[in-house]
Write a structure and sequence with these properties.
Layout lengths: L4 E5 L2 E2 L6 H16 L7 E4 L1 H9 L8 H16 L2 E2 L5 E2 L1 E7 L9 E5 L5 H9 L2 H20 L3 H15 L9 H19 L7 H15 L3 H9 L8 E7 L10 E6 L11 E6 L3 H6 L5 E2 L2 H6 L7 H4 L1 H18 L3 E8 L2 E9 L4 H13 L5 H7 L12 E2 L7 E4 L1 E4 L2 E7 L2 H9 L4 E5 L7 H6 L2 E4 L7 H9 L3 E3 L5 E3 L4 E4 L2 E4 L3 E5 L4 E4 L4 E2 L6 H12 L3 E5 L3 H9 L5 E5 L7 H12 L3 H25 L4 E5 L13 H11 L3 H11 L11 H6 L1 H22 L4 E6 L5 H22 L6 E6 L2 H5 L1 H4 L5 E4 L1 H9 L7 H9 L13 H18 L4 E4 L7 H9 L4 E4 L4 H22 L1
Parallel strand pairs: 4-5, 17-18, 18-19, 19-20, 27-28, 27-34, 28-29, 29-30, 30-31, 31-32, 32-33, 33-34
Antiparallel strand pairs: 1-2, 1-3, 3-8, 6-7, 6-8, 9-10, 9-12, 10-11, 12-13, 14-26, 15-25, 16-20, 17-24, 21-22, 22-23, 24-25
Helix pairs in contact: 4-5, 5-7, 5-8, 6-7, 14-15, 14-19, 15-19, 19-34, 20-22, 21-22, 21-23, 22-26, 23-24, 26-27, 33-34
Bound molecules: phosphoenolpyruvate and magnesium ion.
Keywords: ATP-binding, Kinase, Magnesium, Metal-binding, Nucleotide-binding, Pyruvate, Transferase
EC number: 2.7.9.1
Catalytic activity: pyruvate + phosphate + ATP = phosphoenolpyruvate + AMP + diphosphate + H(+)
Length: 894
């Protein structure tokens, strides 16, 4: 018989923290807490295997599930001293989802389950509070109807609003017990009217309905979108947790809250949390009421005038602090905990490793290592490389003038400016048009995640540091100011107002997510300083990593950034990018359009000095480090002139008429420029182009080496090679120009010649190609395009569908397709090394900055990865993690 259900409660549990795959994060941690003796309401977890079974068997359950659930329910009853459906002493339960990794708010939850017209009487007796009991009952009916029966929430909201209007109430707190009781009846009548069947009274039927709804919600649209954005596979499934209810809304000696064992924004080792008196958990997360801080220090820090729990409930606060200490030491990581106080008794409802900002992740990892709680290797693995992105982004220039509009909570750090939009859909639509937007909402909900993801920043007017907007923005690394209460949002008029100042849709505002400030207009920003914890962790990572990290850079500015971020050379200098400047592009166009060699040489004469000067700058900045320069690789469509003006300019500079230029442009038009006359094909047909470039490189290298006395290490790279017969003559040309230049200047330097590997043929022919190449640099952008037969410019729209269907779960242009392109790389690496054992292997496609692709590069022993300058720190950390992960995998295989 399979075990589908795992019980926990009263200091015991059948599950453990390391069973997340089976029990989901929530279930595994509830079990662990229960075993540790932390007070947890009794419950059971239905495993993720049941979810898998459910979807593989036409939404049905394994035959023996029912009995296991009913047995566990009996256990809850005996521990909690209450009975499901009992008229005097009813047990109520919650039914919640729980996947392997948390997917906040994406799936369904049902609370207060087990209430009906009979058991509500029992709840009145137990609590002595009819209003509380009927309030719980109506919450249950709305939630169940919405989540399980599919009767939309707004029906119930309308009924409530009209009752409040009739009675002249403005607040929910004015609604009486009798009113709630009456509403329950009206709600049920609404359900009957909508569905033709009555609301279920039988608690067991209610429970199975809710379990089915939670499994069903694994496949709802927002859960699917969330999984796609976070690369969570659909086959993981969710577990379902059924747990005895405890009530934080049983009066002023009851409360509910969320807390973090360290500050999730800054990482500071200070207990941080928020709570609401006389409320249920959903009230905190929904951000409808403004919560109070748990500690006095937190209250002071947030300038709150509401009393802290440390003051109002000092004994329970102490108990909570002790649990926080216990759990953090046990899990050796920052914990995000949910708790409820029912009539002065503390219950823990959840603990998990807390989401945190990048700054906090760094500080917590470094601090915990210094405290002796974890070792350096664990610290390195604790920080998600992608997350560093947040720290590499700008902050507001403190000297810049600014116009403060409003102030809210510093919910997610970083500074961002953008045009105001008021709905998530608008945010997506505007972003698609290339606009930078700031999404402004009263509060956000899980439906908004698509729009939040594309926004530069998020601003809400309601809710605390643990509101949906705050939690999601921090996870996404998007700057966010939450709960800016002085701002009034008018969705209909598409305006936000602060006093008499009005901001319209499309106006620009700036957010400072680290301080919680909102400014009118754009405020200039500053680049980040990478010192302190960041430098410490990078140093540890550098000691562990094997692969070098270089940058793709061609301008002085990019090279400077790359060096500052710790690049160990330039892995790709795209020389065609050096010609986009208007003063130069004209000569490139003239060169491309020339009808004969003399015409091309005339244009190249103009380009040589520019080119030499560019290389002088690059070599000067990168002194002592290798610089890989790729000879011209211009897909022609990027360079041909299009407008009348452009054509006239080229004609004038070449001394021909516009008609001649036009007819040349027409002749050179290619149906498929990415597979056309580009790469080394240009060098083969017009060797004088590569000759000029090689000359510029060697002259610049000699000049810088002489002036600085430092080593200059040029590596000349031939692009888009498919055959050794292409590489051989190009290499001979470079060697010849080198000799000529060295002889003319009476000085020599060391240099290397190698090739890009970006065509499948080159991978297969790597053994032959390696005879003439001292290094290979994998151009995985083109290699992906040519291996998959998918245009890198045109595949976006269908790849999105492919991702949804799991065909290529991640965009293969962003993260390497290990099975296909990866095997190509592996073949080339093996064959190349056979010919030339010391051949240097690197990668310079976009994948060189993607952590998962970097892990792949480690497995095939590449010597270096090269990525855009801003990703260099990300790559340094990812490369270190790759070594550690590879080691762990090897251990597992042993
Ligand atoms: C590549 O193809 O991966 C590459 C780095 O070259 P480019 O993107 O310039 O074609
Ligand atoms: Mg390429």
């Amino acid at each position: 018989m399979s075990k589908w259900v795992y019980f926990f409660g009263d200091g015991q549990a059948e599950g453990r923290a390391d069973m997340k795959n089976l029990l989901g994060g929530k279930g595994a941690n509830l079990a662990e807490m229960s075993s540790l003796g932390v007070p947890v309401p009794a419950g059971f977890t239905i495993t993720t295997e049941v979810c898998t079974y459910y979807y593989e068997n036409g939404e049905t359950y394994p035959a023996d599930l029912k009995q296991q659930v009913m047995d566990s329910l009996k256990q809850i009853e005996s521990i909690m001293g209450a009975k499901f459906g009992d008229p005097d002493n009813p047990l109520l339960v919650s039914v919640r989802s729980g996947a392997r990794t948390s997917m906040p708010g994406m799936m369904d939850t049902v609370l207060n389950l087990g209430l009906n017209d009979t058991t509500v009487q029992g709840l009145i007796k137990l609590s002595g509070d009819a209003r509380f009991a009927y309030d719980s009952y109506r919450r249950f009916v709305t939630m169940y109807s919405d989540v399980v029966l599919g009767v939309d929430h707004y029906h119930f909201e309308e009924i409530l609003e009209s009752l409040k209007e009739d009675k002249g109430y403005t607040l929910d707190t004015e609604v009486t017990a009798e009113d709630w009781k009456h509403l329950v009846g009206v709600y049920k009548a609404k359900v009957l009217e909508q569905l033709g069947t009555p609301f279920p009274e039988d608690p067991v039927e209610q429970m199975w309905g809710s379990i089915g709804a939670v499994f069903g919600s694994w496949m709802n649209q927002r859960a699917k979108t969330y999984r796609r954005l976070h690369h969570i596979p659909g086959h993981w499934g969710t577990a379902v947790n059924v747990q005895a209810m405890v009530f934080g809304n049983m009066g002023d000696d009851s409360a509910t809250g969320v807390c973090f064992s360290r500050d999730p924004s800054t990482g500071e080792n200070a207990f941080y949390g928020e709570y609401l008196v006389n409320a249920q958990g959903e009230d905190v997360v929904a951000g409808i009421r403004t919560p109070q801080n748990i500690s006095i220090a937190g209250k002071e820090k947030n300038n709150s005038d509401l009393p802290a729990m440390e003051e109002t409930m000092p004994v329970i606060y102490k108990e909570l602090v002790a649990i926080r200490d216990r759990l953090e030491v046990h899990y050796k990581d920052m914990q995000d905990m949910e708790f409820t106080i029912q009539k002065n008794k503390l219950w823990m409802l959840q603990t998990r490793n807390g989401k945190r900002t990048a700054a906090a992740a760094l500080k917590i990892a470094v601090d915990m290592c210094n405290e002796g709680l974890i070792d350096k290797e664990t610290a390195i693995l604790r920080v998600a490389p992608e997350h560093l992105d947040q720290l590499l982004h700008p902050t507001l220039d403190p000297k810049a003038p600014r116009d403060l509009l409003a102030h809210g909570l510093p919910a997610s750090p970083g500074a961002a400016s953008g045009q105001v939009v008021f709905t998530a859909d608008e945010a997506e639509a505007w972003a698609q048009k290339g606009k930078k937007v700031v999404l402004v909402r009263v509060e956000t909900s899980p439906e908004d995640i698509g729009g939040m993801h594309v926004s530069q920043g998020i601003l809400t007017t309601r809710g605390g540091m643990t509101s949906h907007a705050a939690v999601v923005a921090r996870g996404m690394g998007v700057p966010c100011v939450a709960g800016a209460g002085e701002i009034r949002v008018d969705y209909r008029a598409k305006t936000l107002t602060v006093g008499d100042r009005v901001v319209k849709e499309g106006d620009i505002i700036t957010l400072d997510g680290a301080k919680g400030d909102v400014f009118l207009g754009e405020v200039p920003t500053l680049q980040p300083e990478l010192s302190g914890d960041f430098a410490d962790l990078m140093l540890w990572a550098d000691k562990v990593r094997r692969m070098k990290v270089r940058a793709n850079a061609e301008t002085a500015e990019d090279c400077g950034t790359a060096r500052k971020f710790g690049a160990e050379g330039v892995g790709l200098c795209r020389t065609e990018h050096m010609f986009f400047d208007p003063k130069r592009i004209i000569h490139i166009r003239q060169m491309i359009l020339a009808e004969d060699e003399a015409g091309r040489r005339a244009a190249l004469e103009h380009l040589l000095p520019y080119q030499r000067q560019d290389f002088v700058e690059v070599f000067t900045i990168m002194q002592g480090l290798p610089v890989t320069i790729r000879l011209l690789d211009p897909p022609l469509h990027e360079f041909l002139p299009h407008s009348e003006n452009e054509i006239a300019d080229v004609a004038a500079s070449a001394g021909v008429d516009a008609a001649t230029v036009k007819s040349r442009v027409a002749m050179l038009q290619e149906a498929n420029p990415m597979l056309g006359h580009r790469g080394c094909r240009l060098g083969i047909t017009y060797p004088e182009v590569y000759e000029m470039q090689a000359r510029a490189i060697f002259e610049a290298a000699l000049e810088v080496s002489e002036a600085s006395g430092e080593t200059v290490l040029p590596e000349i790279m031939i692009p888009l090679v498919g055959s050794v017969k292409e590489l051989e003559p190009m290499r001979a040309l470079v060697d010849r120009v080198a000799e000529e230049t060295f002889t003319a200047k009476g000085q020599r330097i060391e240099y290397h010649v190698g090739t890009m590997i970006e065509l499948p043929r080159a991978c297969l022919q790597a053994a032959q190609i390696a005879e003439h190449a001292e290094f290979f640099s994998f151009g995985t952008n083109d290699l992906t395009q040519t291996t998959l037969g998918m245009s890198r410019d045109d595949s976006g729209p269908f790849l999105e569908v492919y991702a949804q269907k799991g065909i290529y779960p991640r965009d293969p242009f962003q993260s390497i397709d290990v099975d296909g392109v990866g095997e190509m790389v592996q073949i080339a690496a093996e064959r190349g090394r056979k010919t030339r054992p010391d051949i240097k292997l690197g990668i310079c496609g976009e994948h060189g900055g993607d952590p998962d692709s970097i892990h792949f590069c480690e497995t095939v022993d590449l010597n270096y990865v090269s990525c855009s300058p801003y990703r260099v720190p990300i790559a340094r950390l990812a490369a270190a993690q790759s070594v550690l992960l590879k080691g762990k995998e090897a251990e597992k295989d042993r």
